[in-house]
C-alpha cells in the first residue's frame, strides 16, 4: 500500500522536515511507485542527515543505476559496500551496477564474493550466469543457472526459462532435447494450473470487433519494439481493439509511445499472475499475444492460467513455449518450413506468407555512404551481434574468410566488449586461429543509436552469426547498405537470416553449408562492383519489400487472428450442440498435480525437477504440509541438511502431529549422530507415511 505509506510519510515530514528515517522511507516508497527522480531527492536528503546509513546509500545507488546514472550509482554502491563489507546483498547490487556499465568481469567478481558470503544466494548465481553468457562462456553459464535452480529459487520458473534460452546457444544443438526440456518446464510451471483456467464467456460472434491483448516486458527501447510497434500502430481499429499489458520494470520514452499507440494500456508489472489473469479476463480479451517466450522477465506463468480463450506467441523467442495453453506460434515458411519443425512445437504454427517480421527503422538513421573499401583500400567485414552468439565455430570460419581475403579487417561490436578481459579473451580465440589482433577491431557499447548505425558506414560486408542468427542487427546492416552473408540451418534460430534475405530477393547471400558461407563471403569481397550496387540499392529494396509493408504485414496477421477466432467460435458451437460443458476447469487441484509430478520425477531420479515441482507447490500454497515435507526431503537428498531441517520444522509448526516430518527430523539427527560420511543418500522418500 505504497500510496498510503507515502501520504503518512509526507505528513511526518511536514511536522519534522529533518526526520532522517522518514526521508529514507519516503524515498523507498517512491521507488516502489516508479517515481525514481523524487525518490533520489529524498534519499539524498536522508544521507545529508545520516551519512553513515549504508542502506540509504545502497537504495540510492540502485535507483541511480536504474535511471541510467551508472557512474554515480556505482559510486554510492561502492561506498555502501565499504561500510558493510560483509553484506552479500549490497555487493550483489554493486555487481548489477557494474553490469550496467558493461563491466562484466567486475560484475562476476562481485557475484562470486556475494556467493562466498552467502553460499545459497541463488540470484547471484543467476546473474553470474547471465554475464558468463554475455562473454560467450555458455558451459559455465549453464552450470550457474542449474546451481541457482538447485538452491532456494526465488524465481524458479524464470531461472528455468533462462536455461531453456541458453540451450539455444549450445553447440552442437539437439532440437529434440531442447523441445523435451521446454515440455518439462511446462509440466512443472504451467500444466498444474489447468484446474484454475476460467470459463471463457466471450461473445462468440465470428464477425465482432476482436479484442487483442499484447503482453511484454519490452514495450521500451528494445529489439522487440522495432517489430511490434508498427503492428500495433497499423491495426485496423474498426475491427480490432488493442490492449497492451505492460510488464516493463523501467519505463522510458518508447514506453510512453506504446501507451499512446494502443487503445488501452494496462501496467501489470507489479501484479501477481492471478491478479493479472483476472484483469485480462475481465477485459474480455479474445486473443492474448505473448511477445517474450522464454526470454528475460517473461510472464508465461500468467499464460498458464489462460485468461483469454486464444493464446499466441510471437516475435520474442525463436522456439516453442512448451505449453498446452499456448495455442499458436507466428512464424513464416522460411524460418519454419511446413513439416520440418512442427514436431518441435506444442503450438500450431501459423506461417505468414510474406515473412513474420515487420521492421520500422530509426527515423534519425544516418545516410548510406560510399563503400569503405574504396576509401581504405581493403575490405572490412563486420558483425554487431551479441558476443554470446559468436560461437567457437563461427570464429574458426571467420578466421578462414580473413585468411582468404588478404589485408581484410573484421569489426566486432557488442556492449559486453567494453569489458577489457572479455575483449582480450575474444582476441585470444582469433589468435588461436592464427589471426593477429591488429586485424580485429573490437568495439563496445555506443550510447547514441545514430552513431551505432553510422558505424556500418565503416563495414563493407556483414557476417551473420550461426547457429544462432541475428535479427535486428541484420535489418540494421541492410538498412545501412551493408550486404549480409548468412548460413541457413535446420531450425528457426538458424533460418531467420534466410527468412529476411529471401523476402528481400537476396537469397543469393544465403549459404547452405560452411564451405559455401566462406565462398560467398570471399566472392563478394572480390567483387567491388556488386558491393557498390548493393550499397546503393539495399535501402530502396527494403522500403519496397514485404518486410517494411506495415499495413500489409499487419493485415495478414489480422486475417490469421480472424481465422483463429472463427475456428474457436465454431468449436464452442459444436460443443454446445453436443451437450458439452464447454471449457470448464477440471476439478483436480494444482497442488495435488505438482505433488504427484514431484514424487514421480523423484522416483525417476530427476531430483532437480522434483525439487522445482515442490518449490512451485509451496509458492502457490505456502502452508501445504505435504509439499513442504517433500521439499525438505529434496533438500536433504541434495546435501542441504540445514534447509531440510528448517523445512521439516516449518511443517511441524503448521501441524505438530505431522508424523512424516517428525520422523524425517529424527532420521537427520540419527544420521548426524552417527557421522555418516555420505550425507547425500538419506533413506527416506517423498510421500512416505503421508496417510
Number of helical elements: 29
Mean pLDDT: 93
Low-confidence stretches: none
The biggest beta sheet reads:
7 strands, parallel
Number of strands: 13
Can you summarize this structure?
With 691 residues, this protein is of the alpha/beta class.
Protein described:
The protein has 691 residues and is of the alpha/beta class. 52% of the residues lie in helices and 8% in strands. It contains 29 helices and 13 strands. The strands form 2 sheets. The chain has a 7-stranded parallel sheet, with helices on one face. A 6-stranded parallel sheet has the order 10-9-8-11-12-13, sandwiched between helices. Helix 21 links the parallel strand 12 and strand 13. Helix 2 (20-32) packs antiparallel against helix 3. The longest helix is centred in the C-terminal third of the chain and has 28 residues, at 550-577. It is globular and about 85 Å long. The two termini are 42 Å apart.
